């Protein structure tokens, strides 16, 4: 585990190509294998998000993937499961609005772990920042089959959130190579992607292409 908490600049850079796992597409491969393919392609953050796994199963996967992330110098995030995140030495825990409240999570993880929080409104974003969030995941920006109950967020709302908070913001929800450039000008620091990476036959190639597009998107005149 890295010594001390990531700086805000490090967190911002990690938002550029934020990959989130989904074992739905493994087809006999291991999650560790697909995670490494993604890291080879240039992912800047890797989140383990496995809603159907028990905490012990999730911890086992996280312990296997953590050293792989370390080899590529990419921070590891765990979705929702605070205990597993702490026990595996993850760099980050990410929680949604329906999960544990941000302030309570911060009390459990202390000051050295990065805390990410999902937000769909400016009010949610400001409260999360006030309660200790280090970055925000905002979406769903586009229709997504990965999360059926995802709340749609407009480009204007994403831009308003980015302008309202001082912490980094990553856009999420249905983002792929066909629509990523539509986010240009919103001030977001990168994109969080699931199926457009892990649902592809060439995970490394898909990640490389999406990272390049994310670089162009975030560099666009704002």
Number of domains: 1
Strand order of the largest sheet: 1-2-3-4-5-6-7-8
Oligomer: single chain
What is the CATH topology descriptor?
TIM Barrel
Q: Classify the secondary structure makeup into a structural class.
A: alpha/beta
Average pLDDT level = 94
Terminal Cα separation, in Å?
A: 36 Å
CATH architecture: Alpha-Beta Barrel
How large is the radius of gyration? 16 Å
CATH class: Alpha Beta
Largest sheet: 8 strands, parallel, barrel
> Based on CA inertia axes, which overall geometry fits?
globular
Pick out the low-confidence regions. none
What are the secondary-structure elements, in order, as H or E? HEHEHEHEHEHEHEEHH
Q: How many distinct beta strands?
A: 8
